[in-house]
Specification:
240 residues, mainly alpha, 13 helices, globular
């Protein structure tokens, strides 16, 4: 078993040894359940989870930093980071292992919401189509993967979980606002580039049921830079 896999499994299990993991999942599912009950289960409404996906995408903004804030911050606060950085494991393995543990936590958090699709299929005369459902879940998972990468970097820069949470939250809000508003207010010569890097436009495509491989690659590629910087921060701490 590789070092990355061991660290990922250790990180995933740590979420369920502490109340914060259970609380995060419970809060997210409670809010999603409210959205599903109030905005999706309406008599005469077309069988679609589009309203749920739109609301859940915004709910992920505060929830994902709550998942990632303790990745390195808690290790540094408690002193358990020292055995980790003095071990033979490479910085890339440590960062990737912790990040993958958080990604698996995100997947487990989204998994129960598949029940909504089953309920909608049971109560609707015409069940929802698979394509828009798959695209909708990609509109949650792929941005979440990037959000976790940003959160991993913020957690690697401080031993304070609150600062890691707020730092990643404000960075993500700034990115989302710039992505949504930038193409409309920027100079004309910048607008094509801003539209190309726009997160909002790509998420909207998924919400419409469009699965574009370029969007999938974009979100995974965008996650690389924060993870590389987190590795640099860990390397600096090891050398210091």
């Amino acid at each position: 078993m590789s070092t990355t896999t061991i660290i990922a499994r250790r990180e995933l299990s740590s979420y369920f040894r502490l109340p914060v993991g259970w609380f995060t999942i419970a809060l997210f599912l409670f809010l999603c359940g409210c959205v599903f009950a109030l905005a999706v289960l309406e008599p005469g409404r077309v069988a679609s989870l589009r309203a749920f996906f739109g609301a859940a995408g915004w709910l992920l903004l505060p929830v994902v930093p709550a998942i990632s804030m303790r990745l390195f911050s808690e290790e540094m606060r408690s002193g358990t980071i020292e055995p980790l950085i003095t071990s033979p494991a490479r910085e890339s393995s440590i960062v990737l292992g912790k990040y993958l543990g958080a990604v698996m936590m995100l997947g487990l958090m989204l998994l129960p919401t598949l029940l909504y699709a089953w309920v909608l299929a049971k109560v609707s005369a015409r069940p929802p189509e698979f394509g828009p459902l798959a695209a909708g879940y990609l509109s949650l998972f792929l941005p979440g993967v990037f959000y976790l990468a940003v959160g991993t970097l913020c957690s690697a820069l401080t031993n304070n979980q609150t600062l890691a949470f707020l730092g990643s939250l404000f960075i993500l809000l700034a990115i989302m606002l710039a992505s949504a508003l930038g193409p409309g207010i920027a100079p004309a010569w910048m607008q094509p580039a801003l539209r190309w890097i726009s997160f909002d436009a790509r998420i909207q495509d998924f919400a419409k049921g469009v699965i574009d491989l370029r969007h999938v690659i974009f979100f995974f590629a965008a996650s690389v830079l924060p993870l590389v910087l987190a590795g640099v921060a860990l390397r600096a701490r090891r050398l210091g």
